[in-house]
DNA sequence: CTGAAAGCGCTAACAC
DNA sequence: GTGTTAGCGCTTTCAG
């Protein structure tokens, strides 16, 4: 049989065995690095594998071993803006390369809102053994959903938010510390009256930590602080800035909960003829690509999305293999970096 | 056996059969909508499926049917900017929902550059039957790579670029028409001296079509046109604008090959104290989110990424099922929309 | 219309 | 060290 013929229909383990003149089990042993395979046999088998362009069938492997080599990257959040969040790319890109490095594939799912087959679809795919575990990416997840994930027995790592119950492992970043660094930076530049634009009703740990970090830091520095409600979007940032500027006592720094709101605040300032940073400092949070493009460029906090993503994959893998140290705390926080630009 | 017990270890088809008091084959027939199953039997089986929370094992199905229900969404392009391209999210999001609607999952791969396991990894995953076909997303793909994909027998649909050989099916958008619309818009606003910033050495059909569409439209309108080299990035847009402005005869409109370069051009104009659009019009191409956030906001061409993505999935599916009409042309082009904003 | 048999490609358990 | 047997969960024959 000529090697080329094998390309018609993919070679199987038995084809390799026949070609190498050994039993199919020997081939399997070679592939799984079983000890005590004679080097010459091993070489013969490897040659046959190469000659026949053999690739193991993942479905057969998964069926036999009842474990799959696919991980799910699940993004929660339904708004068009959220779907388009550039940070999702970075996260997913890091997921993919980290997972691939461990021999896993990544399947991506979209959760939340009215999207058909959101959480139910995730569960169905898991029950069908389409993937072995998931990283759920979101700044906020309803507690009921977290309990569901835990109840389903779905191996899960939360990304960018924590489980208040401490059941699900999570990878987050130091939001509070980021806010503290920002406040310190602003105070050192002479700012004394700080306003933070952030949703006031968001239960997600991401919002809560930013809020509390801000308030605590302002208190520690002895400067005035206040919260202005705003819902993560560009438009919300614009509106919040206008409200703050319409008031009697205007702040000398407007901190925004994310870059998108920061861009909105800059736009409102420009429209109102307010000079940034001379009259008021403006900052964001996330360090999206467009933070470099605004006028003036946006001072912000860089979130280490790539490192977080790689860590999340590793934590998920150790969860799946059961090698997670039992004393490991569920939460895990990576540091952020202040990125001073023109706006503050 | 109590239903709850089944949750420990997932229920199989035989469990369902035992619970419903039929043979396992009958359950399979019910699931596959085989004709001539008695309604009462069918109902009993459905009840058992629900009671046991049965979900078919995709690996077993794939093994038996030798076809998988996973499609690969492969992004080509290595630069950090490309990875962060917001349009990738939209494309992927549409892929996922369209594929899910047809009962398929999506796995995502990153190709290109020095990324370990790029094209070789894609082929390996395909050979392992990790997915059945792929959509390759990129504005440009080396012809050699296209020939590889075709040679491997990998069912492929190209997204956002065409196969010059016409072998691989593709879904693109009307780049030339978009440029023509933009030129018409600018001419109607009194512009007579147009410069297009775009790579001059990019062989990708996306760049070629934008370039040629621009030149043809300018010729048709009888206005002056020129090409200024620039390599898709923000910084390239900035530099190109500065070069154009440093010259003797400045254009009255600077068209940029994408929004990122448009944002760079706006920044350069601002830095040079050039008023946009009074002194010069600036435009982009793509309609990224940040085109709304620049100052002034960026006039651009909206590319129907979502519709293209859905179409690409459907074309891939018909390719896989062999139901593609044989006379269907390989290329397929969707229309673009002009989005006039402040900058032009 | 329903049941029994065979096998997709692979690996874990035993013989040899 | 190597080969044989059995079976993961499913669907496609083919008998009843």
UniProtKB/TrEMBL annotation, chains A, B:
Domain HTH lacI-type: 11-65
Any one GO molecular-function label of the UniProt entry: transcription cis-regulatory region binding
SMART domains: HTH_LACI (SM00354)
Domain of life (superkingdom): Bacteria
UniProt keyword terms in alphabetical order: DNA-binding, Transcription, Transcription regulation
UniProt KW Amino-acid biosynthesis keyword: no
PANTHER family the UniProt entry points to: LACI-RELATED TRANSCRIPTIONAL REPRESSOR, LACTOSE OPERON REPRESSOR
Protein's name according to its UniProt entry: Catabolite control protein A
Organism whose genome encodes this protein: Deinococcus aerius
Organism lineage string: Bacteria, Thermotogati, Deinococcota, Deinococci, Deinococcales
């Amino acid at each position: 049989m000529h090697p080329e013929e094998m390309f018609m229909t993919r070679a199987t383990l038995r084809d390799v065995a026949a070609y190498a003149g050994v039993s199919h089990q020997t081939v399997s042993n070679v592939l799984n690095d079983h000890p005590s395979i004679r080097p010459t046999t091993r070489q013969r088998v490897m040659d046959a594998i190469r000659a026949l362009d053999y690739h193991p069938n993942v479905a057969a492997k998964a069926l036999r071993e009842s474990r799959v080599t696919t991980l799910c990257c699940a993004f929660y959040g339904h708004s068009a803006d959220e779907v388009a969040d550039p940070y999702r790319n970075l996260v997913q890109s890091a997921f993919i390369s980290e997972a691939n490095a461990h021999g896993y594939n990544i399947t991506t799912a979209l959760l939340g809102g009215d999207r058909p087959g959101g959480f139910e679809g995730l569960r169905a795919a898991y029950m069908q053994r389409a993937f072995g575990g998931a990283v759920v990416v979101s700044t906020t997840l309803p507690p009921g959903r977290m309990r569901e994930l835990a109840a389903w027995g779905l191996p899960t790592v939360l990304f960018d938010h924590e489980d208040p119950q401490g059941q699900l492992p999570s990878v987050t970043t130091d939001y509070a510390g980021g806010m503290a660094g920002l406040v310190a930076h602003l105070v050192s530049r002479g700012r004394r009256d700080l306003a933070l634009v952030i949703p006031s009703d968001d239960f997600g740990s991401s919002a809560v930590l930013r809020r509390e970090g801000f308030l605590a830091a302002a208190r520690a520095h002895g400067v005035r602080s206040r919260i202005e409600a705003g819902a993560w979007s560009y438009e919300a940032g614009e509106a919040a800035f206008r409200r703050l500027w319409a008031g009697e006592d205007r702040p000398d720094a407007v901190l925004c909960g994310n870059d998108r709101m920061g861009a909105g605040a800059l736009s409102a300032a420009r429209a109102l003829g307010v000079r940034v940073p001379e009259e008021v400092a403006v900052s964001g949070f996330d360090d999206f690509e467009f933070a470099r493009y605004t006028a003036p460029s946006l001072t912000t906090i860089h979130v280490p999305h790539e490192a977080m993503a790689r860590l999340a994959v590793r934590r998920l893998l150790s969860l799946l293999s059961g090698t997670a140290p039992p004393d490991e705390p569920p939460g895990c926080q990576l540091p952020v970096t202040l990125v001073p630009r023109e706006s503050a």
